[in-house]
Write a structure and sequence with these properties.
Shape: elongated
Distance between the termini: 99 Å
Order of helices and strands: HHEHEHHEEE
Largest sheet: 5 strands, mixed
Strand order of the largest sheet: 2-1-3-5-4
Radius of gyration: 25 Å
Number of strands: 5
Structural class: alpha/beta
Strand content: 5-15%
């Protein structure tokens, strides 16, 4: 007598579920598209283009985790912080990079960090790095190379940074330090025997 009710109830349940899922998916997609970490502003895109033309594949770029995630799509270089799942020790490294961008590091600490991470380029998005921006040009080895209305890109040359240290942190040539380390590897201080 009510044999038709079961298929109708199942069909109604599938229809309501499908509509609900579709509405939920549309809402999630709209919200994700508006999150800042998923959006590249025109000024950022211009900076990515400039950096992509000037950074070599072997160069390392220092940026925040969010910026590194977005830039990696457009620039064929290495990032200190890229995708969290493939960045070793991402939590500790993020804390150190956040400290850099907060501007609380001394010039010596900045150079030690940049040398340790083999950084060649520094990407500054003022929203994430307001503390460090005014101080960077005063640190030896760091030069402003690109700027637009919201993004700055600095280059870093460890050889130009040695004036900040006495004695310098960069190793002496291998022939001067017989038997210590491998020439050209690392940037630590060479010890005399």
């Amino acid at each position: 007598r009510f044999a038709w009710t079961r298929p109708v109830l199942v069909a109604a349940l599938v229809l309501v579920s499908s509509l609900g899922s579709g509405i939920w998916l549309a809402k999630i997609c709209r919200n994700l598209a508006n999150l800042p970490e998923h959006y590249v502003a025109p000024a950022e895109f211009e900076a990515y283009g400039w950096l992509g033309e000037h950074a070599e594949r072997s160069h390392v770029i220092l940026s925040t985790l969010d910026d590194g995630n977005r830039m990696a799509k457009y620039i064929s270089a290495r990032f200190v912080l890229g995708h969290g799942a493939v960045t070793p020790h991402v939590d500790e490294l993020s804390r150190r990079v956040e400290r850099f961008y907060s501007g609380t590091m001394s010039p010596r600490e900045v150079i030690v960090l940049l040398d340790e991470l083999h950084v060649r380029w520094i990407y500054l998005d003022p929203a994430a790095s307001s503390g460090v921006t005014p101080h960077l040009p005063d640190i030896p080895g760091i030069k402003l190379r690109y700027a637009n209305n919201s993004v700055s890109v600095f280059s870093y040359s460890p050889r130009d940074a040695t004036s900040l240290f006495d004695p310098p942190l960069l190793p002496r040539p291998a022939e001067e330090v017989a038997g210590v380390g491998v020439a050209g590897v690392g940037r630590g201080r060479a010890e005399d025997d």
